[in-house]
Amino acid sequence: MEELLAMMALKSAPPDFVLCVGDDRSDEDMFEAISTSMARSRIAEVFACTVGQKPSKAKYYLDDVMEVIKLLQGLAAASDPAAVHCLASSSSNPSLETSLHI
Questions:
Q1: How does pLDDT run across 16-67, given as a tens digit for each residue?
Q2: The pTM of the whole model exceeds 0.85
Q3: Contact, 48 vs 60, CB < 8 A?
Q4: What number of other Cβ atoms are within 10 A of residue 17's Cβ?
């Protein structure tokens, strides 16, 4: 992760958005590294999410794997301009705003 962000910065192409999702202790190193890289890089938006509410270096949490899937489906739908209208007008689609918990 650190190497990828450094390479992108060298090419003057920092990411606009970074999403890190993890569910166990080994992911805490990733959460720490992403917060350190955030301070050094020009990343517009970073979302570090642990799965399950527990002490974590991640700022956000998702309750379970189903919420991770809903979040990813919502991101996929939102990245398709034709789907944005459907996402906003359909209550059956997941809401990005309600998926992440602080």
A1: 788 899 999 989 998 888 777 766 666 667 889 999 988 999 989 999 999 9
A2: no
A3: yes
A4: 10
> 65-79 and 81-89 helices cross at what angle (nearest 10)?
130
* Residue type, position 93, single letter: N
Token duo for residue 52: 């399950």
What is the edge-to-edge ordering of all strands in the sheet holding 17-22? 17-22, 45-51, 60-62
Q: How far apart are CA 15 and CA 10, in angstroms?
A: 12
Q: Tell me whether residue 14 is exposed, middle or buried, using C-beta atoms within 10 angstroms of its C-beta: 0 to 12, 13 to 18, 19 or more.
A: middle
Contacts for 80-86 with beta carbons within 8 Å, 24 or more apart?
A: none
Nearest to 58 by CA among 99, 23, 94, 96: 23
Burial (0-12, 13-18, 19+ Cβ within 10 Å), 48: buried
